[in-house]
Write a structure and sequence with these properties.
Four copies of one chain form a homotetramer.
Chain A lengths: L8 H9 L3 H6 L2 H8 L4 H28 L3 H28 L4 H6 L4 H16 L2 H25 L7 H8 L1 H22 L9 H24 L4
Helix pairs in contact in A: 1-11, 3-8, 4-5, 4-7, 4-8, 4-11, 7-8, 7-11, 8-9, 8-10, 8-11
Chain lengths: 231, 231, 231, 231
């Protein structure tokens, strides 16, 4: 039980099937730099600005999940996530950025890095091409990866890292509980579409693939934060 | 100025272009029955149950508006509406229905009347086939029509009508302010897509048509409430 | 084997699960009127005009199937259907209508009956809310029902019915082979998403429901042809 | 007149607004290598395989254009393009690849390069987030850029380049006429949504931006062909 990723067999399998791509994402040098405080301020700023644009499109993708929900529970969790993203997480970013002299309208209009575009449009298309579960497979690496990264950086952080607020945000109870709630819904969404033995369902490899691709695109995003965008 | 429908030239024109279809909707016998209390309880119950299913799909349509928003303001208002629909308006319906012994899960699973299906899927398709503004034209008759109906029933209601809570809900400040906020956003959405003389834009007739069709489908919905569904 | 509906267990089950709604559609009075020639010319004209608008939206729905296809075979069949609908079936209608003095542009711009709107937008939304298979369940009653109706009217037709060309079109080898090809693809699409025992998959009831609703909307369409639209 | 890009003021403006990004795409080293025959065979093979996967998603995007078409002409051209892509252009690729010992199923299942994913999902999302014209702006750099590249390589090609078939395909009358037909439709689509002075419409900058982003993603695609994918 304790070995399950956020108590979900589905998420545990998806993470396992991503192979090396998973640790490459959750223990990326960018992440280590957050924990030990060596991440250059410039890299963090670049990440913050792009993450704001990411949140805009991530909100769109969760809104697509509302469109595609097939149970009351799916709809409620997806709608609450849309609201939390726009009215909490985006506001948090805005405040952090305001301190650095960047307005919300500037943020909304910032030039989108290609690494950002790639990731978010891939997730949106998972919603267009498949069903609610396909979309969940593409959304999960972000939601649950940040949960794991929050705990990892909390455990490995150096005293005095200037990124402790970021670490608190993702390792804190609020975010960790959100992960548990979304994970329970994803698990139920899996069973209600694939049946009691989901790993034997013919869709399984394609769901794993969507999760893995999104994982790789998260790593791309860290690379962009660390080294700058190709654009 | 005071003649403008919720201060919006766009909404005023759309309403005018709907011709007789508009008063047929907002002063329908169902509406008059709410005001004077003569609406049979059975008709109101039928309406309430179907309205719950309507809200599920209306939420999906506003979520599609989040997907299609092209400015921060559009996204914020659409996301807030998704949240308000799921966590406030649907809960209000659930409570009303619980008093009548109908559970939320029963509500979610109730047989959808064909009049409901017609209306909601038409709105969804406006989102798929067009842009954000096309979707707004299809969503507006519900949002602003209920605002007008709230004020109309408030003004004409008989003392002792058992529907006074419903009348309060839609004539009250909360709902009327929501209308004003959404109207301001719709007006801005129009100008930012059609330019300073929107009525001369070639898309104008098609937007009026979407508004008018949705208006007719609202009347269909009242008919279903009053006389029962064809299904 | 010979009892299978177009050789497909999936279609056979879907048809069976539609219960009385299926014969209500395929042996509707409109259909009987085609076979024995008693259908009023006016009803047929009304049907033809609306069927043209139906084909426009049916083409959009098959195009959505291309968007949602997950194998080369699915994509090829869906793309060929889009092409056949626009460049063959719509042209056939245009020619029939031209004889009656109705131009293609008039057809494209004809007022859409509410029964038409209901059906086509329901099918489109099956594509938005679900995956390729959900869309197939909503598209199937039209494709295969017309196949069955073609054979039924061919068998029961009266000599001298003025609708023999229509009967030939749907009972002929071209259309019947199209049905067999699409059925084989639907069968494969089912197995590749639900596994070797699709009827035990938890999605099965919801797929049956989509098929049944589309079947009822076909009957609505015949009613409109026979008695005129509500609009 | 003769200075207009495929006779279309819209396309001419979009191309101009892309600035340096346009020549960076149409006269990329990959293109020059096709013309003078110096492009390594390995690079061409990599491009061919990825281009096949590109065509799958490009077909999906044109199918989305069918879904979003708002006139008979738009629908006919988009549907014909879907058919041409699946049944002609993809087949042409298949044959070229078969000579190199790569089967169609292998092609369909080849690992998608991230440069491919980025481009195609961006185009799909233009269809989801906007209207038909937004989608056309994202689709145009491919359609018309290949037209220009066809003529450019035809004019500059070295005798004996092994890529003469590719050059013939895109400089030939069939492809050039397709460009003219699609361009006429795009021009009409612009006027029917933005009015007689489209460049003054507030949507204009956003349409130019979609065109420019797609142009940059084309250059990314050539880079991938030349140097290999990041994945």
């Amino acid at each position: 039980m304790s070995d399950l990723f956020y108590n979900s067999p589905t998420l545990t399998e998806w993470r396992g099937a991503a192979g090396h791509d998973w640790p490459a994402y959750v223990t990326h040098d960018f992440v280590k730099g957050l924990a030990d405080g060596t991440l250059p301020a410039e890299a963090f700023q670049r990440y913050l600005i792009q993450d704001y644009i990411f949140l805009v499109h991530f909100t769109r993708a969760w809104a697509m999940a509302v469109v595609k929900s097939e149970s009351l529970e799916e709809m409620k969790i997806a709608a609450a996530t849309v609201d939390a993203l726009v009215n909490q997480e985006m506001q948090l970013h805005v405040q952090t950025c305001l301190k650095a002299g960047i307005s919300e309208d500037q943020l909304y209009g910032a030039e989108e890095a290609v690494e950002n575009l790639t990731y978010t449009r891939f997730v949106m298309d998972a919603g267009i091409s498949g069903d609610f579960l396909d979309l969940m497979a593409a959304l999960s690496p972000c939601v649950f990866g940040y949960g794991e990264i929050g705990l990892f950086t909390q455990k490995t952080k150096q005293a005095g890292t200037s990124y402790h607020e970021w670490i608190e945000a993702y390792s804190g109870n609020d975010y960790q509980n959100l992960c548990l709630n979304v994970a329970a819904m994803v698990e139920k969404a899996t069973l209600s579409r694939l049946g009691p033995r989901p790993f034997e369902n013919p869709r399984w490899p394609s769901l794993c693939k969507r999760f893995q691709t999104a994982t790789k695109l998260e790593t791309n995003f860290w690379e962009m934060g660390l080294k700058g965008s190709k654009w």
